[in-house]
Specification:
Elements: E1 11-15, H1 19-30, E2 34-38, H2 42-50, E3 68-71, H3 84-92, E4 95-97, H4 99-110, E5 115-120, H5 125-138, E6 142-147, E7 163-168, H6 171-175, E8 184-187, H7 195-198, H8 201-213, E9 217-221, H9 225-232, E10 238-241, E11 248-251, E12 254-257, E13 262-265, H10 275-290, H11 295-304, E14 313-318, E15 321-325, H12 332-341, E16 345-350, E17 352-353, E18 368-374, H13 378-385, E19 391-395, H14 397-410, E20 415-419, E21 423-424, H15 432-446
Parallel strand pairs: 1-2, 1-3, 3-4, 5-7, 5-8, 6-7, 8-9, 9-10, 10-11, 15-20, 16-18, 16-20, 18-19
Antiparallel strand pairs: 11-12, 12-13, 14-15, 17-21
Helix pairs in contact: 5-10, 5-11, 10-11, 14-15
Amino acid sequence: MTPVHCFTNQRIALFGLGGSGLVTAQALRLGGAQLDVWDDSEGARAKAAALGLNLIDLNTADWSHYRALILAPGVPLTHPAPHWSAAKAHAAGIEIIGDIELFARERARLAPKSHFIAITGTNGKSTTTALIAHIMREAGFDAQMGGNIGVAVLALEPPAANRVHIIECSSYQIDLAPTLRPSVGVLLNVTPDHIDRHGTFENYAALKQKLVANSDIAVIAVDDNTTRAIAETLPRAVRVSAKDKADVYFSGGLILNKSGAVLADLTSATALRGQHNGQNAAAAFAACAAIGVAGPTIAAAFLTFPGLAHRMQQIAKIGDVLFINDSKATNADAAEKALLSFENIYWILGGKAKDGGIEPLERYFPKIIKAYLIGAASDEFAQTLKDKVPFERCGTLDVATRCAARDAAAAAKPAVVLLAPACASFDQFPNFEIRGDAFRAAVENLK
């Protein structure tokens, strides 16, 4: 854990006692802060009490005593309206920050020159974060990976000269980190997302831009209009691409430099299938090279990268049929990456639909042999697929898996049963991880 000393002997309010909130509270307590914590959930408060944290109802507290509010990233800061705790902090004139900001301040205090790679983007950031961490470990570094990828940043070992932190940053976390200044900042893409939390797409994009603009070295994938515009404002940025030539780019299964020299061959890297993973690998190559990792070391690490669960994850092959778990594809843009990567697809999709549905994916419909609809989006998606792709209403994931496997096997040729829902999971599953685990279990039952 990284103890936080920037508020030693100062009174601090903390709201939000989920996983990262509890870690943050313990890190502040270890650093000597006088901490009052609260959460709207009785269950979360019970967990805090079990850890000996000081529970104070911040609704009725005297906010003039507090130096800062530490806010969990899932709590609304500005939109659709500030959470009541944020409103009270604003009224008291105190700063509102999050755990990434606390880490940034500890790094500035302990080891300001230590390697700190921060990764953001609408899609692909978890894979790229894990890939960079894998490369750094293969290169012999003490690589600490966390942030939005699932391990709270303050649960990691403290910044040190011989240590590298690889941190995935969401827009929510960036919004709460005013002094975030990574040694390498990576921006992968910016497409509409989280507008309900940031008010406008422009606000959302500005937060993504902030991460790379404040980095010592910026690595920007320039394959969408927004990231290209951001790169134009940062002329020294390292540009990467999976569509065009750039400082580092992906083409024909290879990573190349701007002169066309081959840096790495991804054709045998089974966890990095698809053009989108080519872009992720190009960004990872540029980020690791920027802090001195040798090119051949990076190239070799690509081949041993195991990938992440629920992200284009091959979970089985039964006969000529591959079963691919891409439960993390919770919107159309993410599902597009999987559809681009395979042929002869038996597509399982559905759940709680997001704005735009699957209409943006229509150009990939010729690759789909049949679709299998689950969850609340079934009626909406059936209308989109009607007269374009054969489909079957299956209702639940286990039924869809059996039906897709049956049809793929009957075709007697190489095929892919692909779970790429293009939806949130919340109609039937608590999160995409549990949905992916259910798909794996359904496939195991087929065996």
